[in-house]
Amino acid sequence: MIADPQVLEFIRSTEAAYPAEANGASAADNRRYYDAMCARFRAPRPPGLPVRDQELGGVSCRVYGVRTPVAVLYLHGGGFVVGGLDSHDDVCAEIADATGLMLVAVDYRLAPEHRWPAPLRDVEAVWQALDRPAVVVGDSAGGLLAAALCLSCRGQRQPLGQVLIYPSLGGDRSASSYTVNAEAPMLRTVDLDGYQRALHGEGPVADPLAQPLRAPRLGGLAPAFVVSADVDPLRDDGRDYVARLRLAGVAAEWRNEPELPHGYLRARRESDRARRSFQAILAAIVRLAGCVPVRA
């Protein structure tokens, strides 16, 4: 239940530009709705912050800030269908400015034009080309990619840490959040089904990297900070992933945000709750940036 007037106003503003039916539209129409909504909330970059577009590993990226010994690798959300360098530009700029770390945002390929594992292959290519240790951060679909990157790099160079923001991790649909929040604002369970079909087609998902919660082994992964929105079908994915990481001996923290819906990062300037959560995310990035890389 959401009673916070700031959050309710954020939801109204979002749905005015990005109605629920946009998730059922064609990919092109969905992207038009989504881009218009993101532009509505996009804040100016911090003054004086250097920003440049460049390729890393053959993948288009946007780099924020000056070169630092440790970086942040940011993977945007959008259900693998929408989003890009512009949709999360202000979030990335603020993270780079607040942490003082160079941030690399990845413009990975989108579905349905490019199905799994194309997005992960792009992220892996950037990771291999990145010439410094980094904390990997992702929201929503980007949270899945961040977790998948850590899994795909097990036994090799791991990120310093993984920060997963309301991530989709392939959770069991019998988990309570999928039913209690099935009709939640901003993201419904039926929307998740549509995004999965766009990314994987019909039929079951076979690759455990596409569903990190179903990976057989989680030992040897980077330490994790996982934050979920309480009013979100994906809430229990974060909780359950942290529980599994801890059982595997991985340092992991779960933070659940009452009265916040999926996608609340865009509310960080309008909502006190969202702003406090963003500050906790920034603190986690800085803390993990000081960790020693984890190896299996």
Description:
- The chain is globular and about 40 Å long.
- The protein has a single domain, classed as Alpha/Beta hydrolase fold, catalytic domain (Rossmann fold).
- Mean pLDDT is 95; it is low at 292-296.
- It has an 8-stranded mixed β-sheet, sandwiched between helices.
- With 296 residues, the protein is of the alpha/beta class.
- It is built from 9 helices and 8 strands.
- Helices cover 38% and strands 17% of the residues.
- It has helices spanning 5-17, 27-41, 89-99, 118-129, 141-152, 176-180, 189-200, 235-247, 272-289, and strands at residues 51-56, 59-64, 71-75, 102-106, 134-139, 161-165, 224-231, 252-261.
CATH superfamily: Alpha/Beta hydrolase fold, catalytic domain
Helix content estimate: 25-40%
Global shape: globular
Q: Give the overall average pLDDT.
A: 95
Number of helices: 9
Strand order of the largest sheet: 1-2-4-3-5-6-7-8
Q: What's the CATH C level?
A: Alpha Beta
Low-confidence stretches: 292-296
Q: How is the main sheet built?
A: 8 strands, mixed
H and E string: HHEEEHEHEHEHHEHEH
